[in-house]
Write a structure and sequence with these properties.
Layout lengths: L8 H12 L3 H8 L3 H15 L12 E2 L5 E2 L1 H28 L5 E6 L1 H7 L1 H10 L4 E6 L2 H9 L5 E4 L8 E16 L7 E2 L3 H5 L2 E4 L5 H12 L6 E4 L3 H9 L5 E4 H9 L3 E4 L6 E11 L6 H9 L1
Parallel strand pairs: 3-4, 3-5, 7-11, 8-9
Antiparallel strand pairs: 1-2, 5-12, 6-10, 6-11, 6-12
Length: 303
């Protein structure tokens, strides 16, 4: 065989059929073609390989079935071909199992709030319905999660922040309410409405750059003329909520994060302008142009 040439798998399949069905006529029947087509195919394969494969007459080739005698080269090629087509069958079985969700992976990414409050019941339902699929939930801020989508380390992701990347398709998923909170104070009621000037003098606890919560909080405060003189970065919404409850400052946080602390009086809401509550959009992220794996299709059906 000339260097750089490849084996024609269609012709190789004909050759294997001839060996396994012990003749050209039975091979033709199994492949639903004519005997002459099989004979021509085997001769063409021999020509491409520059190697005789089948003994056509008395010879000393290795016997492989009553009706066909192979040359040494033919026997070697047959053994390799059996391995090739066995791998083909395994590959097809694996794909069928994945399509049927009898195996495979679901790799979901989420920013911290989504992972902590919105996705757990959905992931649990998926695991109950498809116990043979391995599930991986990766948690990070919006920036980290977006990079994981682009790098192919995630199949789908859910984040709070805006994503401006042509490689990513961002689809609106749902709205999430936000609240401005401070430490609870039973002497001053469940909420208050300070002036923007007073809010400027407060210490605001904020997430790190790249966080969706940080992006939305900055935009909401700026839109209402609030420019805090002091900000303290903390890398977790829950940590911020508890720090605020201990009197460290104020914050804009998802309502799901602060609900229990408000209910117990450790936090109270602060009205900013005419608004008591804000909301932000949550987005589903997928890599542009990538077909959805069956596991992702099944997961999206649960949402």
């Amino acid at each position: 065989m000339n260097s750089g040439h490849t084996v024609n798998l269609h012709l190789l399949r004909m050759f294997v059929a001839v060996v396994e069905h012990q003749g050209f006529s039975r091979a033709a029947e199994s492949l639903f073609v004519t005997q002459s087509a099989v004979s021509k195919g085997v001769r063409e394969l021999e020509h491409q390989l520059a190697l005789p494969l089948v003994e056509r007459g008395a010879g000393s080739g290795t016997s492989s079935g009553r009706g066909v005698r192979l040359t040494d080269g033919g026997q070697a090629l047959y053994e390799h071909a059996r391995g090739i087509f066995a791998m083909e069958r395994l590959a097809l079985e694996d794909v069928r199992d994945r399509v049927g969700l009898r195996k495979g992976w679901l790799r979901v990414g989420a920013s911290t709030t989504v992972a902590g409050y919105w996705l757990p019941p959905l992931v649990a339902r998926f695991m109950q319905q498809f116990p043979d699929v391995q599930v991986e939930l990766q948690v990070g801020n919006t920036g980290d999660t977006s990079r994981a989508i682009v790098d192919g380390r995630l199949d789908v992701a859910y984040v709070e922040g805006a994503v401006d990347d042509p490689r990513i398709v961002a689809t609106f998923w749902r709205s999430e309410p936000l609240q401005v909170v401070e430490a609870g104070d039973a002497t001053r009621g469940a909420s208050r409405r300070p002036t923007p000037a007073a809010l400027n003098r407060e210490t605001w606890l904020v997430r790190e750059p790249g966080s969706g919560t940080r992006q939305v909080a900055d935009a909401l405060l700026a839109a209402r003329g609030i420019a805090p003189q002091r900000q303290v970065e903390i890398g977790s919404n829950e940590a911020i909520a508890h720090a605020v409850a201990h009197g460290a400052g104020m914050a804009v946080l998802p309502a799901a994060v602060v609900a229990d602390l408000i209910a117990t009086g450790r936090l109270r809401t602060v009205r900013v302008g005419a608004d008591k509550d804000f909301s932000r959009p949550l987005f589903r992220l997928e890599l542009a142009g990538r077909p959805r794996p069956p596991s992702v299709v099944a997961f999206l059906a649960l949402l």
